[in-house]
Amino acid sequence: MDELDRRILQLLQEDGRAPFTQLAKKVGLSETAVRFRYKNLVEQGVVRTVSIVDPFALDFQAPAVINIDVEPGKIESVARQIAEMPETAYLVVTLGPYDLLAEVYCRNLKHLTELVTHRIQAIPGVRSTETSMVAQVYKLSYRWSPSQEEN
Question: Which whole-number Å values give the CA distances from 41 to 20, 136, 146, in the listed order?
């Protein structure tokens, strides 16, 4: 990936529906060249085109972050089950006091309580959970891009 690919990615993050003709003008390439670069980025798994849904606009008013402590040897099994839950937006293995971190969106406190106490804590291998409700979002960005600087 070179500087032109990074610029194309940046422009697509600003407007994922921008036509290749517009992108081509902004990066100084032909439409064909931009289309070819985009196709390569997709094939390499660098970029995916998706729609982003705002859960708050759909009245999901109880977002939370759940830290999950899992029995040794059970992380994969527990993670697969949590990943299948429709409330789960983000799930990662972490290195620290907890094994998994899940970001979830629930309609209300009752829904969140049911999810944590009756579904997640009921999964074999889950030892404990710690839930933090999101009170206010200061930044929610899908515009991450690799740093231009070398560390």
Answer: 14, 34, 14
Residue 37 lies in a domain: yes
**The domain that contains 110 carries what CATH number?**
3.30.70.920
Q: Are 104 and 128 contained in the same domain? A: yes
Residue 104 resides in a domain: yes
Q: What is the CA radius of gyration of the chain?
A: 20
What's the token pair of residue 67?
């830290």
CA-to-CA distance for 123 and 83, rounded, in angstroms?
A: 12
What range does the domain containing 18 cover? 3-43
How would you classify the pairing of strands 88-93 and 62-70? Answer: unpaired
Q: Could you report the per-residue pLDDT of 47-81, keeping only the tens digit for each?
A: 888 777 788 888 889 999 999 999 999 999 999 99
Reported as a single tens digit per residue, the pLDDT across 85-142 is: 999 999 999 999 999 999 999 999 999 999 999 999 999 999 999 999 998 888 776 6
Distance, CA of 28 to CA of 110 (rounded, Å): 53
pTM of the prediction?
0.75
What tokens does 110 get? 């009752």
Q: Which amino acid is present at 96?
A: G
